[in-house]
Amino acid sequence: MTGHSLTHLDASGHARMVDVSDKNETFRKAIAAAEVHMHPRTLALIMSGSMPKGDVLATARIAGIMAAKKTADIIPLCHPLRLTSVSVELVPVDDKIEITATVTTKDATGVEMEALTAVSVAALTLYDMCKAVDRGMRIDKTRLQHKSGGRSGDYNAD
């Protein structure tokens, strides 16, 4: 199966990478989000720069960007893409840090997985750097917020 048959299964029902060779390269964008809930004391340590492992937000931001660039290496059957931009924002709100990743490309397939991977790895990095202080942190609400470009059209979460 090739061309317009966008499935991860071949004619025998075995997993394979989707053939996107017939798809046009267009501008594509995805935005994903996640939250890391924590004790207010933990958030205060992060914001004051007093966490024992260093600058948690800067490290999580870089980890998210690097993860987006390596998505095809860690998600089976995901296409390697030429990313044109990746941004990861981490914003403290009440007892949590809200993470948002925006990923763009001009390619034949979308960047939803790259955006979701970026927020997931940024959240895991936050957890890793703070777990000695707060093992009760919770990663929550990982989701795709927006997708544009490509044959399937735009998506905006409710």
From TrEMBL:
Keywords: Lyase, Molybdenum cofactor biosynthesis. Residues 17-150 form the Molybdopterin cofactor biosynthesis C (MoaC) domain. The active site is at D128. Its EC number is 4.6.1.17. Gene3D superfamilies: Molybdopterin cofactor biosynthesis C (MoaC) domain. The keyword Protein transport does not apply. It catalyses: (8S)-3',8-cyclo-7,8-dihydroguanosine 5'-triphosphate = cyclic pyranopterin phosphate + diphosphate. PANTHER family: CYCLIC PYRANOPTERIN MONOPHOSPHATE SYNTHASE, MOLYBDOPTERIN COFACTOR SYNTHESIS PROTEIN A. Homohexamer; trimer of dimers. Belongs to the MoaC family. This is Cyclic pyranopterin monophosphate synthase. It comes from Acetobacter syzygii. The gene is moaC.
